[in-house]
Amino acid sequence: MRNSNSKSKFDFSGLTSFETSVLKVVWKIPKGKVTTYGQVAKKIGNPKSARAVGNALNKNPFAPEIPCHRVIKGNGEVGGFASGSKRKIMLLKKEGIIIIEGKVKDFGNKQY
DNA sequence: CTATTGACGACAT
DNA sequence: CATGTCGCCAATA
Q1: Counting C-beta atoms within 10 Å of the first and last residue's C-beta, which end of chain A has fewer, N or C?
Q2: Active-site residue among A53, A68, A71, A78?
Q3: What is d(CA A86, CA A13) in angstroms, rounded to the nearest whole number?
Q4: Which protein residue's Cα is closest to nucleotide B8 at C1'?
Q5: Which residues face A77 on adjacent strands?
Q6: Per-residue b/e over A62-97, b at no fewer than 16 CB within 10 Å?
Q7: How far is it, in rounded angstroms, from Cα A52 to Cα A37?
């Protein structure tokens, strides 16, 4: 398509089905909440694909628009980020998430 | 098709 | 609680 009357918020042209699924799930994460790579993986139908999920977000085709910074590791650590984990922590703190020593405070209570 | 890499997870020690 | 090892999946060379 590529015309102006696109219905989707983003143009997933050129991306794989897996990447599109990941981006859609991440997009649903509300502000002030977080989720894990494993949870996203499970949501798209492959509980074991946590790594692949991270890889998909690493490409990050819609960098600041997709709340990819709300996706963290399953053990409560912030995990990685394309622009640096420091940046990720800063963004999370801005949304009300408290980070201590690289880990989310009240992690279990902030999971979506 | 095979090998390597990577924003991970679970388990053993 | 910290570190090490194995496993799993998808993209890329």
Answers
A1: N
A2: A68
A3: 30
A4: A51
A5: A103
A6: eeeebbbbbbbbeebbbbebeeebeebbebbeeeeb
A7: 9
